[in-house]
## 1
Amino acid sequence: MKLTPFTIIYLAGLVSMSVIRGWYSVKGARKRVKNRESKGLDALLMGISSLGFILPLTYIFSSWIDFADYGLPPVMGWFGAVVFISGHLLLWKAHIDLGTGWRKLIEITEGHELVTDGVFKHLRHPIYSAHLIWGLGQALLFANWLAGWSLLIAGIPLLCYRIPLEERMMLAEFGEDYRSYMESTGSLLPRIKRAR
């Protein structure tokens, strides 16, 4: 087992993220599904993206993928820790702002509400942004091509598939309200407002 400050930070973040996800999954589980768009491809891409969590655990608890190690100065690991924790905080805040509206699958539930405040005031997909930030932090925490970069590499195809699908569902459900929200709010990055 590789017990370093960086692996401890990663493991604490992973456990904390699992608790957050579990809590909000239970809270939202009672809502009845009105429309579901999750298909086989979504499940496949979710499975592939799980490598982003499996490979770091493999790296921490075994030496099987040590052949993919490369050198990084320790300062990069500490910078990665800051980035990693920032992604975690964004994930946590997005879940708080969504409340029972978060779903693991691509679904619209009965009484689904359009959330446009909190972090959603600046980002339409802050949970996906958090995963990208988390993945960048992970790449700096682990100087290993497989463990470090796995979340970004395995997760990006899932985001490329899900974001357009979710946006179509939200447009179908909320119409002009969502279209107006799209025009004023960035998808994964905040939209820069032009000075008038």
## 2
Amino acid sequence: MTVEGLVVAGLFLFVARGRPISKLSPQKPPSSILSTTTLFSMAAQFAVHFLAIMAVTHMSEAYIDPYDPSIIPDGPFVPNTLNTATFLITVLAMINTFAVNYQGRPFMEDLKENTLLFRSITLCYCVLLVCALDMFPPLNQLLQLTSLPSQKGLPLYTTHDFNILSDLINQASTLLGFRVTLLALMCADTACVICFEKVIRQWRSQKPKSG
């Protein structure tokens, strides 16, 4: 969490370094941060991230020993599948928030033109991929993350939470394996928020101008 805080501080700094473009745009920016399109965008992104986090949580619970002392409130922290997977998906949601909500043109330089921010976000995505696949164990140990299950088949433990979401996620985890399913959920979260934001921005640009 300390590392995440440092990453957030760095990304905020690089967002602030984004420069306006030299040519004035004929399109007006939103008149308020609480405009309809902004609120709708926030609600859509929240829904996508919430579903992804809940899906990963349900999937991870099937790999957690119910007698694990780390899941007891105020118990000792022990890296396990649940806290590792939920940490990865919540950090991804945070990075996606910066990547998707960066305004870019026609008011300021694009994300790719803001080199520091673009490279930092790309590096964060790469680090998440390395941690999820356990490609560099010392990094996982530094971040107190455990190695995620890689084998296919039935999970180690059964859960008593039966609903459509958990059933579908557990079936996918059984068929594809935990790591593949987690990566698929991370990619789906990223793709969905990007698509939603593109649609909302197109709708905003096509709205009739008052006056």
